[in-house]
Amino acid sequence: MKATTIKLEGDLLKYLNRHKPRKESLSSFVRQVLEGYLEEQRAITAAKDYNNFLQKNPEEEEWLEEWGNADLSEAPKTAKKKGQK
Questions:
Q1: Which long-range contacts does 27-32 make (Cβ < 8 Å, 24+ apart)?
Q2: CA-based angle 47:60:46, to the nearest 5?
Q3: Out of 11-15, 35-39, 55-59, 81-85, least confident range
Q4: How many Cα atoms within 13 Å fall on the side-chain side of residue 3?
Q5: d(C-alpha 11, C-alpha 19), whole Å
Q6: Has residue 82 got a pLDDT over 80?
Q7: How far is CA 6 from the centre of its chain?
Q8: Following DSSP, what letter does each residue of the chain receive, concatenated?
Q9: How far apart are CA 43 and CA 36, in angstroms?
Q10: Residue 24 half-sphere exposure, CB side, CA atoms within 13 Å?
Q11: Residue 15: CB partners within 8 Å, gap ≥ 6?
């Protein structure tokens, strides 16, 4: 695995050191912050993609609304198989 060194200095370094947990290394903290940011960006992209999908497939949006309003307080009724009473 390739490793990269990034130089942090000045106010940014002071800010990171003030906000990281005392027992956590700066490298670990920066890695965690970056992973959180990237996960947030993936979620934003996924939400935009899903909204585009719903715009192109209005029947899916209708089904989703119906599903969201379903009464979940009772078990769904199931069809009986042939030969069962």
A1: 30/6
A2: 15
A3: 81-85
A4: 2
A5: 12
A6: no
A7: 27
A8: ---------HHHHHHHHHHS-TTS-HHHHHHHHHHHHHHHHHHHHHHHHHHHHHHH-HHHHHHHHHHHT---SSPPP-PPPTT--
A9: 11
A10: 14
A11: none
Tokens standing for 50? 């899903």
Q: Which two tokens stand for residue 36?
A: 């959180």
30-63 pLDDT per residue, tens: 999 999 999 999 999 999 999 999 999 999 988 9
- Tell the residue number behind the tokens 């990269």, with chain if given: 4
Q: Which two tokens stand for residue 60?
A: 């899916």
72, with CB counted inside 10 A (0-12, 13-18, 19+), is exposed
3-state helix, strand, coil split of the chain in percent (to 5) is 60, 0, 40
Measure Cα distances from 38 to 31, 45, 72 in Å.
Answer: 11, 11, 35
Would you put residue 20 in left (φ > 0), alpha (ψ -120 to 50) or beta? beta
